[in-house]
Amino acid sequence: MDSAFVPTTSFARSQRSSAISGNRSGFLAPAVGRVSKPVRSSVVKMVAPAAEGKLVQTGDDLADKCINSIRFLAIDAVEKANSGHPGMVMGLAPTAYVLYDKIMKFNPKNPKFFNRDRFVLSAGHGSMLQYALMHLYGYDSVSLDDIKQFRQLGSVTPGHPENFETEGIEVTTGPLGQGICNAVGLAAAEAHLAATYNKPDAKIVDHYTYAIMGDGCNMEGISGEACSLAGHWGLGKLIAIYDDNHISIDGSTDIAFTEDVGKRFEAYGWEVINVVNGNTDLGAIEAAIEQAKKTTDKPTMIKVTTIIGYGSPNKADSYAVHGAALGKDEVTATRETLDWKYPEFVVPDEAQEQFGKKIPEGAAVEEEWNASFEAYKEKYPELGAQFETIVLKNDLGTEWEPALKKMGEETAKAATRQLSNVALNTIAPVVPSLIGGSADLASSNLTIMKGYGDFQKATPENRNLRFGVREHGMGAICNGIGLHGSGFVPYCATFFIFTDYMRAAMRMSALSQCGVIYVMTHDSVFLGEDGPTHQPIEHLASFRAMPNMNMYRPCDPTEVAAAYAVGVESRKTPTTIALTRQATAKYPESSFEGAKKGGYVLTDNTPEGETPDMILMGTGSELPLCYDAAETVRESGKNVRVVSLPCWEK
To answer: How far apart are CA 329 and CA 415, in angstroms?
Structure first.
């Protein structure tokens, strides 16, 4: 049997074979009476003959049981919830099995083990893939009852992976493209730590970042921004697996997406590997990942061609299986097609035993790393102590806050963007994990840390990140750096108006509880001659309305210092600091502690116990209007209180 067959159903679209590279099929053995058309025989390895009406699988009974355990946990959970995306899981289960079972380094009983490989499901709508893997491989955070509560209110298995809900999820994904950009940030964090701490005789930072992305991720522009930069940086430990199934919500992707994604990634500077049969060829999948790991000077994209909904006789390879439950009859038919004789949510013992092997293996991997780190500390006590304090314990020490407070007291008045530069360079020497940069505006945002060099392919130990004109990707990369879990304090910068380009990433910072510092200069109509296209108007109000976002607009050196202090200490809340281009005043009454609280009384001539006749509140460069107006009104005998309110949310 040397050809594959596609069933003639309303969803079997063999007629579109000319529009894509290779035809699609359900790979069903022909049943009696079925009219079938041979397709795509050149890319299908029929490793074992199928029984009549059954689907050809890998030929390895244990592997098939493991793969189908993943598939049917997803199918059953989506069916029970009557909501979700089963198709991607069904198609990508073989790849996920190979990745978790044969490749990835992790300890299910300690999801925070430092030197674990990081996994990002950029195609977050397929979240049941990750939940199934975590449950099957022994993560305590996802029980079988949690699987059964998929997409239910209050469950730890929400519709899209959320790092703040489910231990073991590295980053929150769902908005397509964000996850692959987070993965770039995770890989950049690994590269920086490896260059900072590794020695020729002691390699304590050595892990990969794996990301699964889909057609939607590749369509979103943000992925192009970050993947371009990943290629420039040469992030050799970043491996992206592209689920090439040619289906999106509206149908075949050839209605809107026909470019050669592989050539695009090659142009970015990536290695590109194709796996033409991701449905059954486990050996090819494993070989591709191993080949990718050997490519150390550039990231790798592995294009794995799969059939969405693999195993569904009437909905495979169609949009109908993308974002909806299969339906009771189709679930039954899929069980028959895949020869799955087990009830809902039941995993066969043989598969469970195989999955369970990762628990002692993971513990041994962590134990081995712990021993290596103890030896490292003996050889390199100073670096070892720093690594343990910052990277493992996320302890930033106590020097940075007094340094900022002193800076606020001693620095003369200036534009607050200039004061921001002073603040950055005040904390840079005492917070070694501060890392960041600007979207091609460093000379205007004033965000260079002096003496710390540029993070580049040849110098990943340096701390100034050059993002180029890539605001959206910049924000998402910083989220990845911040969520690496290694004590990083990431910051990024552009003009405040250009938060329009990166708002989605900033919202994901807030949602993911990721303490990125957003340095946003040119914060008002007083930005200069650029005109209304560059004038932020509604932006302050919009970020003040965003949950879990500190929106600071400081007025002077003391308040700038306080804003940075909040940004550094707020590891679960991002902080946006809006800064002026024009010079501002310096007030002897301004308060570091008051500004950290978000607001305080700057001046007040109201006698104790009385109510002021007027309260004037202001922020940033408008505070002088309140300050001067109060002085004028007080001359007429009125009691006026002036309140500085740099952060409404505090």
So the answer is: 67
Beta bridge mates, 271:
300
- Give the model confidence (pLDDT) of 130-180 as tens digits: 999 999 999 999 999 999 999 999 999 999 999 999 999 999 999 999 999
Structural tokens at position 325: 């439950």
549, two tokens: 């976002």
What radius of gyration do the chain's Cα atoms show?
A: 28
The overall longest dimension of the chain from CA atoms, in Å, is 100
Kindly state the tokens that stand for 387. Answer: 């690594």
Q: Which is it for strands 575-578 and 517-521: parallel, antiparallel or unpaired? A: parallel
How many C-beta neighbours within 10 Å does residue 262 have? 17
Check if the beta carbon of residue 317 is closer than 8 Å to that of residue 308: yes
> Which of the residues 401, 471, 559, 622 is marked catalytic?
471
Q: What is the pLDDT of residue 517?
A: 98
Euclidean distance between the first and the last CA atom of the chain, given in angstroms as a whole number: 69
- 3-state class of 511 per DSSP? helix
Q: pLDDT of 295-318, one tens digit each?
A: 999 999 999 999 999 999 999 999
Question: What is the rounded CA–CA span in Å between residue 84 and residue 404?
Answer: 48
Nearest to 108 by CA among 355, 351, 356, 362: 362
Q: Does 505 score more than 90 pLDDT?
A: yes
**SS3 for 39?**
strand
Question: In sequence order, what DSSP letters do the residues of 11-33 get, joined into one string?
Answer: T--GGGGGGSSS-----BPPPTT
What is the H or E stretch that residue 251 is in? strand 251-252
Whether 260 shows a pLDDT value over 60: the answer reads: yes
User: What CA–CA distances, in Å, run from 85 to 71, 304, 618?
Assistant: 11, 19, 48
Distinct helix (H) and strand (E) counts, the chain = 22, 18
Nearest residue to 80 (alpha-carbon basis) of 320, 347, 345, 342: 345
CA dihedral angle for residue 427, residue 432, residue 437, residue 443, rounded to 10 degrees: 50
DSSP three-state, residue 340: coil
The answer to whether 472 and 245 have CB atoms below 8 angstroms apart is no
Output the pTM of the full model: 0.93
Q: Which segments of 306-451 does DSSP mark as H helices, in order?
A: 328-337, 349-356, 358-379, 381-386, 400-410, 416-427, 442-445
3-state secondary structure 614-643: EEEEECHHHHHHHHHHHHHHHCCCCCEEEE
Q: Is 471 a catalytic residue?
A: yes
99 burial (CB, 10 Å; 0-12 / 13-18 / 19+) is buried
CB of 308 within 8 A of CB of 91? yes
> Residue 344, class by beta-carbon neighbours within 10 Å (0-12 exposed, 13-18 middle, 19+ buried)?
middle
